[in-house]
Amino acid sequence: MAHIYLRLFAHTLNKNTDVNIILPTPNPDELMEGKESSYFHDDMHYQVLYLLHGTYGDYSDWCRNTCIERYAQVHKIAIVMPSAENSFYQDMVHGPKYLTYLTEELPLYLSRLFPISTKREDTFIAGLSMGGYGAWHIALTKPEQYAAAASLSGVLDFSLMVDEWSGSIEARESFEREAPWPIKAIFGEQELENIKLSNANLMVQIKKIIQNDKELPKLFNTIGKDDFLYSNYKSARKLLEEIGVPVEFEEHNGKHDWTYWDTQIQRVLEWLPLKRTTV
Fold this sequence. Notes:
Layout: E1 2-10, E2 15-23, H1 28-32, E3 48-52, H2 61-65, H3 68-75, E4 78-82, H4 98-113, E5 123-128, H5 130-141, E6 148-152, H6 158-166, H7 169-178, H8 183-187, H9 192-196, H10 202-211, E7 218-224, H11 230-243, E8 247-252, H12 258-271
Parallel strand pairs: 3-4, 3-5, 5-6, 6-7, 7-8
Antiparallel strand pairs: 1-2, 2-4
Helix pairs in contact: 5-10
């Protein structure tokens, strides 16, 4: 197992940023037991899972709080864990363009340095909470680039969340002061109602893909029944079922915490169409 910490200057962000990368390599058990392991051959490439953090998080969260290294080794998949601050994975109006960085600059950069496939059928994305929203948002922004996207305890009904943000003028001002996300920096001064109608809304993205007769990525969502976002999930599930979008929905006992996410990232890896070998 190779665990690589990478610090790079990103042109689209106009600053230095951090990425954790996991690449499966032969391990002692395979060598001692004489197991065949097709890690190194001509033109080898790994399937890749981009794994996103939640609010307050960064590139280190998944490695510090789960056994993702061990899971990646078992499934022979590369894992890429970038930092995106509390940006909601948007191209911020007043700030870094994280959506462009994650969908364009970073994949190209990594493909030049590491044996990571850039084929759609080998490229997946997942995340938790804010990153769960981000995983779907990114995959729906570039459906030709991602074969599957998984949300763990993610914000899926953006309209419902915006309604909760808006309320009265006093409520909105209080939210903008106290929220961890810099709303005005992310979305500018536009009315929140306009944000609901924009591509920041997953439902808007999905409808546009269907209208344009494009192929949707495979979509997966899992959430704990005691999660504070459970009502948001129920609202989003109803909307998606009305649209007729095939989504793998799962709900289990659990909360909005790492105990749940460590378990469910294993479920995501089982769900993904993995080859469990280099390609």
